[in-house]
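lol forgot to send this yesterday, sorry. struct tokens for the thing we talked abt
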């Protein structure tokens, strides 16, 4: 495995790369030695240089973490990052049967290790602390990498991949909090400085090439209050030995961390299914599944349907990701970009038409094609075809009642 080539492949072509990874030997030690230590090392070193050598400023005050504390924080952060990846792999392996998947520790480790690539590389932005927020965007892309890898690595049905990924994300948030807390012990609390500051009033916009992300600070403050209250309830329940109440409070706390409910109530599966026809572009519907999954205070709705004829097969997925701003920012990050990429065999395009974002990926030989549409109300439509070219996939997308889906109004 060439490190640079693998990083490029998993970041730029995750859906094509996961089957390759799945077929490789399950070598946990080798992954640590040849892949993770480099990515985690770059992230930790960048944080040391940024916060201890360059420093950061706020309101006219310049601050640098002392060199010795910064070195200790770098080492501890590096080690805990590697430990966290293994712990999350254990969680992924344990969760798989609950979502209809298969337990396989080797593949679970590969899922988390390669899925974390974007987040680990995002640590490079810590070289300039003023840009460290951009690392958050990279971490959000890691959520998408995990989501695309779950069906391949853990054999979780695609209809359940979203719920599986969400639970894994929650566990990642908890693990990240632990890393930050332990790291702050060695940096005199500098790593927690942002957490202790009051959120500025109004919205904060972060501009990066090709996109702009707006963060509603009032919603962040509301979520923080909910997390604090849920944390107190969990501690009280644990003190009484009430494990059921403690588990419920934990779910509420994690749901608040992910912004559950901030985007409104999720659409009911039946509401989404009503817009999936029995026939699509000359193909008969052969299977359909509408489901609503709840996990850790979060609810997800989706509809997956299959259409076939003698020539090929098309799968249509309609997912509601708009009820959770963090999830929508992660899975819909591509909608903020414009892409035109073409090789000898493949084409990838991201564009907007009439205010709606589209993404197309297809092989020129017509063997496979995918098309995604992100609606303003947070509904994500994905159409993929086997032995169907991009024209066939476009025809299938056009045959859906997109106008009806766009008109769904979310209740607060």
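and heres what i got for the seq, position by position
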């Amino acid at each position: 495995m060439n490190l640079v080539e693998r990083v490029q492949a998993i970041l730029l072509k995750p859906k094509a790369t996961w089957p390759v990874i799945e077929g490789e030997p399950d070598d946990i030690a080798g992954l640590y030695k040849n892949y993770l230590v480099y990515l985690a090392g770059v992230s930790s070193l960048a944080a040391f240089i940024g916060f201890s050598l360059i420093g950061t400023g706020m309101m006219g005050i310049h601050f640098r973490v002392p060199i010795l504390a910064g070195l200790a924080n770098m080492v501890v952060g590096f080690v805990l990052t590697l430990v966290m990846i293994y712990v999350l792999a254990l969680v992924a392996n344990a969760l798989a049967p609950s979502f209809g998947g298969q337990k396989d520790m080797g593949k679970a480790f590969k899922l988390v290790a390669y899925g974390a690539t974007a987040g680990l590389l995002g640590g490079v932005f810590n070289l300039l602390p003023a840009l460290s927020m951009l690392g958050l965007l990279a971490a959000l892309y890691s959520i998408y990498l995990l989501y695309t890898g779950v069906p391949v690595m853990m054999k979780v049905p695609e209809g359940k991949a979203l719920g599986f990924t969400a639970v894994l994300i929650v566990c990642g948030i908890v693990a990240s909090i632990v890393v930050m807390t332990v790291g702050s012990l060695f940096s005199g609390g500098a790593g927690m400085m942002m957490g202790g500051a009051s959120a500025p009033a109004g919205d904060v916009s972060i501009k990066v090439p090709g996109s702009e992300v707006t963060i509603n600070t009032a919603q962040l403050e509301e979520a923080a209050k909910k997390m604090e209250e849920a944390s107190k309830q969990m501690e009280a329940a644990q003190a009484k030995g009430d494990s059921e109440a403690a588990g419920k409070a934990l779910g509420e706390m994690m749901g608040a961390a992910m912004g559950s409910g901030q985007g409104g109530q999720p659409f009911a599966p039946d509401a989404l299914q009503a817009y999936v026809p029995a026939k699509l572009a000359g193909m008969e519907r052969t299977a359909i599944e509408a489901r609503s999954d709840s996990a850790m205070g979060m609810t997800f709705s989706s509809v997956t349907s299959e259409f076939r004829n003698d020539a090929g097969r098309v799968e249509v997925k309609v997912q509601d990701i708009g009820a959770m701003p963090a999830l929508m920012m992660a899975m819909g990050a591509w909608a903020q970009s414009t892409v035109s990429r073409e090789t000898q065999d493949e084409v990838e395009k991201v564009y907007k038409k009439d205010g709606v974002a589209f993404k197309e990926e297809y092989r020129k030989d017509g063997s496979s094609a995918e098309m995604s549409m992100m609606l303003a109300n947070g509904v994500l439509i994905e159409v993929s075809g086997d032995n169907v070219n991009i024209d066939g996939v476009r025809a299938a997308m056009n045959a859906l009642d997109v106008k009806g889906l766009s008109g769904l109004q979310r209740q607060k």
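The two ends are 49 Å apart (CA to CA). anyway ping me if u want another try
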